[in-house]
């Protein structure tokens, strides 16, 4: 087995382990595009893991940025197979380099900023950590229409990140992070202390639902131009959007238990959603 095949298998194992939703959605792509998605996901995952789980995240992220700079100059300064797979992706597709830089910037924000006060701050963060992934994938999924799809790919990323924020309130709080806009909570009569006490009441639910409604509008925007994707990319993109949007319904069904419960869409529900696309 040659090194490139092994490198792509390494990337596939990463997405299979860490994001069953994305893995399931993008399994429907042609083989070459599917492998390219795995490599991009592995890149993003590595940055995310450095920030969330690294022993010395600032130093590790600095080294990662140096590796990426070397990579862009044509070098492979790391033995990590992800770089080999990504090199093949960059050779075969016109990748958006700025999106890769912006994604690293977004992850770096988590090292310096723990609290978000306004909708604008949350949307800027959501662009950097999630919309950028959509922009990285566009040259793979829709090479001929990527500029026309740019704004709606950004909308889909923001919708997904807002969904993450609404799902992971308790998990983020355990890391001393609050991504819900604090000004909005306080206007509704809900304090940071209430959040720390894991209080679920009408005030929290009202803010949660406002943000969920915004996410759902962004999902609709993103899907309004689905016909501009090549036929083989439409179902994976719709699948990813529908599977992620279904998380909001799961949280509602469980009475907004956002502090202790990890919400997800079951395999049975995933099959049902995919079959209806």
UniProtKB/TrEMBL annotation:
What are the alphabetically sorted keywords of the record? Carotenoid biosynthesis, Transferase
Q: What is this protein called?
A: Phytoene synthase
Quote the InterPro entries the UniProt record gives: Isoprenoid_synthase_dom_sf, Squ/phyt_synthse, Squalene/phytoene_synthase_CS, Trans_IPPS_bact-type, Trans_IPPS_HH
**Signal peptide, first to last residue:** none
Q: In which pathway does it act?
A: Carotenoid biosynthesis
Q: What is its EC number?
A: 2.5.1.32
Q: Is ATP-binding a UniProt keyword of this protein? A: no
Question: What GO terms are given for molecular function?
Answer: transferase activity
């Amino acid at each position: 087995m040659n090194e490139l095949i092994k490198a792509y298998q390494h990337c596939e194992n990463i997405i299979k382990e860490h994001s069953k939703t994305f893995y399931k959605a993008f399994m429907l792509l042609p083989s070459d595009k599917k492998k390219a998605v795995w490599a991009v996901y592995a890149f993003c995952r590595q940055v995310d893991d450095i920030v969330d789980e690294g022993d010395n995240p600032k130093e590790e992220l600095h080294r990662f940025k140096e590796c990426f700079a070397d990579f862009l100059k044509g070098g492979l300064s790391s033995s990590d197979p992800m770089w080999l797979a990504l090199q093949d992706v960059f050779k075969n597709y016109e990748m958006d380099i700025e999106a890769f830089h912006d994604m690293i910037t977004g992850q770096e924000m988590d090292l310096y900023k723990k609290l978000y006060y306004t909708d604008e701050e949350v949307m800027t963060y959501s662009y950097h950590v999630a919309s950028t992934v959509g922009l990285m994938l566009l040259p793979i999924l829709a090479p001929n229409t990527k500029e026309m799809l740019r704004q709606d790919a950004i909308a889909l990323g923001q919708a997904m990140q807002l969904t993450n924020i609404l799902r992971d309130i308790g998990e983020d709080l355990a890391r001393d992070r609050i991504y819900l806009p604090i000004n909005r909570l306080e206007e509704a009569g809900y304090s940071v202390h209430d959040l720390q006490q894991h209080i679920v009441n009408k005030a929290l639910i009202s803010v949660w639902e406002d943000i969920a409604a915004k996410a759902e509008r962004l999902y609709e925007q993103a899907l309004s131009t689905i016909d501009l994707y090549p036929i083989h990319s439409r179902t994976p993109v719709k699948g990813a959007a529908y599977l992620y949007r279904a998380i909001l319904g799961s949280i509602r069904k469980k009475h907004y238990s956002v502090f202790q419960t990890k919400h997800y869409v079951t395999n049975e529900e995933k099959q049902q959603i995919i079959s209806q696309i």
